[in-house]
Amino acid sequence: MRLYKIILFFVLLIGITSCKKDIEVSPNSTFEGQLFIESILIPGKLPRLFLSNSLPFFDSNVTPQEVFARGASAMISSNFLTDFLAPDSTFDKFRCRWVPFYKGSFPTQSGQTYDLLVTYRGKTYTATTTIDQPQVRIESVEYIEEFFDIYGGHDGVRIKFVDAPGPGN
């Protein structure tokens, strides 16, 4: 028993007197940011395009307003329509702040192919997508106050729907 106390004493002594070293990190001043482009097209809704600049790790500008890519030119087009996106914003109630984005003026349609053209600081970015998945019909939504799985107890929402057959969805 006495041996355990001596070992415990030395372990605590080593833990208390262990070395501590402060390391100074100087941010790289040659950081060249990149443009982040995020968008989702939902049939029947206006397109939203989130453009933001990447920042160095130690940069203090971190809110959506500070990283928003102002001054970009964004256009979404399909075979019958061209939509120039304009800056807009929405209030994020969870984080209590405004989130800026570029918004279109015409709702997207299922079955259409859309081309995105973004010009920002002299560079041009393009993307193409087709809205080819049918909208899923939700049969019911229910709140579950408590359920258990391998990770423990939770509460949650159960959504019931019938998945359309086929490997493409």
Total strands: the figure is: 9
Largest sheet: 7 strands, antiparallel
What percent of residues adopt helix (DSSP H or I)? 10-25%
User: What is the average per-residue confidence, as pLDDT, rounded to a whole number?
Assistant: 86
Strand order of the largest sheet: 1-2-5-4-3-6-7
Percent of residues in beta strands: 35-45%
Derived from helix and strand composition plus strand pairing, the structural class reads mainly beta
Indicate the radius of gyration in whole angstroms.
26 Å
Q: Looking at the structure, what is the overall shape?
A: flat
Total count of helical runs of at least 4 residues: 2
End-to-end separation: 66 Å
- Give unreliable regions as ranges: none
Helix and strand sequence: HEEHEEEEEEE
The quaternary organization reads as: single chain
What does this entry look like structurally?
- By secondary structure, this protein is mainly beta.
- Helix content is 12%, strand content 43%.
- The protein is built from two helices and nine strands; from the N terminus they run H-E-E-H-E-E-E-E-E-E-E.
- The strands form two sheets. Strands 1-2-5-4-3-6-7 form a seven-stranded antiparallel sheet. Strands 8-9 form a two-stranded antiparallel ribbon.
- It is flat, with a radius of gyration of 26 Å.
- The model has no long low-confidence stretch (mean pLDDT 86).
List keywords for this structure.
single chain, about 170 residues, mainly beta, seven-stranded antiparallel beta sheet, two-stranded antiparallel ribbon, 2 helices, flat
